[in-house]
Amino acid sequence: MKGAVVGTSLAAAAVLAACADSSGTDVAAPTADQSSRAAVVPTAAPTSGSSSATSTKPSGPSAEAAERCTSPEGFSYRVPDGWQTNDGSVAPPCSYLATGPIEVPEGTDVRPGAISVDVDPVAFERVAEERDSHTDRTETTVDGLPAVRVEAVAGDAGYYSPGTERTAWYVDVPDGERPRSLVADVVDLPGQVPYADAVAALDEVVASLRVGPGPATGPGANDRRST
């Protein structure tokens, strides 16, 4: 009988010990160091040159190249947002910019776009010389090359009707065989983009210009030097 009591006591003690352990009564609480380690969720370290997974907008030289127009005349520029260029089926590509589709008519001097960019076989000193029609003239550089920006109003003997406003950039194009000049301009003509908006886009185009050697076979050579 005494042995049975002892056995029963030992079993009861074991049960009580198990209950105490499961309830946490006699278990030491985790240290602060253990708690902090337990809360850490491991993440992959970013690799060198990686980008955020939420970034989907292209940037850098490749994105800029996708938005540039390159002409066989030896220049390229970034196309402003909301503008487009001619396709090159009649005039060389990148010769005209407009805010809508551009159709270049054959055998005419009609401007199909608000902005015109062309390379003329004319010496820079001649095409950029100061004229009475100039209301503002600034000498500067474009892509490291000598350049002049002019604002002008056509006179009685000009190519355009008297009083027509024009903003133009002239850039000296390097070429060892013959003189050449890049001419980019906007003329305030009826039916075109508002003049101030076109001038702002023109300045943006010129700011992104890259100029190099190329053939001097642009459309309308020599027909924009009178103002």
Automatic annotation (TrEMBL):
Keywords from the UniProt entry: Signal
Skewed-composition ranges (Low complexity): 42-63
Keyword Signal tagged: yes
Highest taxon above the source species: Bacteria
Segment forming the signal sequence: 1-28
Annotated region (Disordered), positions in chain: 23-86
Name of the featured protein: Lipoprotein
Organism: Aquipuribacter nitratireducens
Higher taxonomy: Bacteria, Bacillati, Actinomycetota, Actinomycetes, Micrococcales
